[in-house]
Design goal:
Blueprint lengths: L1 H124 L9 H12 L12 E2 L5 E2 L6 E2 L5 E4 L5 E3 H7 L2 H17 L3
Antiparallel strand pairs: 1-4, 2-3, 4-5
Helix pairs in contact: 1-3, 1-4
Length: 221
């Protein structure tokens, strides 16, 4: 009986040892499995971190490119605005230049017209016996009367209609009737139509007319 008990005790110890070994093996296997899972997890975490860092680097690069693109766009917009301003300024300058050219051409034509009239007046008035009743000469004399304030009498008085005989203060030609010239307000000086024509600054006449016309155009209605 004792031998049997010993044998049973021995078998029990063997089974306990086997169970213990099996348990330890299982535990070791589970620990190895957990180590493997932890290793895989660390690898995935490392990969995820690297991917995150790569994504952040790509985002930074894109942001930098976007910043450069925005700066370029602002520069392009500023350049475009500057070009538009330059074009507008050039167009305005061209318009003003054309207007200036048109004014100068009109001025030149009017001056040529006045020059032609004065030459004709000089020719008609320079005749030995001018025909003062000639309609063309009458028109010229009316023009001279309208511009008589451009020529001063020696006494400074304004020129008025002829009233009595005298001699031209410039050329001493007789001014013996109203058709031949004007007399000053002090009654002491005369001027013949030819000298009146010769001494009028026709450029000044035209410039004054032009300034008056431009003033009228600039005044509000």
């Amino acid at each position: 009986e004792i031998a049997k008990l010993h044998k049973d005790m021995n078998d029990l110890q063997i089974r306990q040892q086997s169970a213990q070994e099996a348990t330890e093996a299982a535990q070791n296997a589970e620990i190895a499995k957990l180590h493997k899972v932890m290793s895989d997890l660390q690898i995935r975490q490392q990969a995820a971190q690297e991917a995150t860092e790569a994504a952040q680097a790509e985002i930074a690069r894109l942001q930098k490119e976007m910043g450069g693109l925005q700066a370029w766009r602002k520069h392009a917009q500023a350049t475009e605005a500057s070009q538009k301003d330059a074009i507008a300024t050039l167009q305005n300058d061209m318009r003003e230049f054309r207007e200036h050219v048109d004014r100068e051409e009109a001025k030149a034509k009017e001056k040529e017209k006045i020059r032609s009239q004065t030459e004709k007046a000089t020719r008609l008035l320079g005749q030995k016996d001018p025909k003062y009743d000639d309609p063309e000469l009458v028109k010229i004399i009316d023009l001279l009367k309208a511009q008589r304030h451009y020529v001063k009498a020696e006494c400074g008085a304004p020129w008025l209609e002829w009233e009595e005989k005298g001699k031209c203060q410039q050329c001493s030609a007789p001014v013996d009737r109203k058709e031949t010239g004007l007399q000053c307000g002090n009654k002491g000086h005369w001027i013949c139509w030819k000298c009146m024509c010769d001494h009028i600054d026709w450029d000044m006449v035209y410039d004054t007319k032009l300034q008056q016309a431009e003033k009228l155009q600039g005044d509000p209605p």
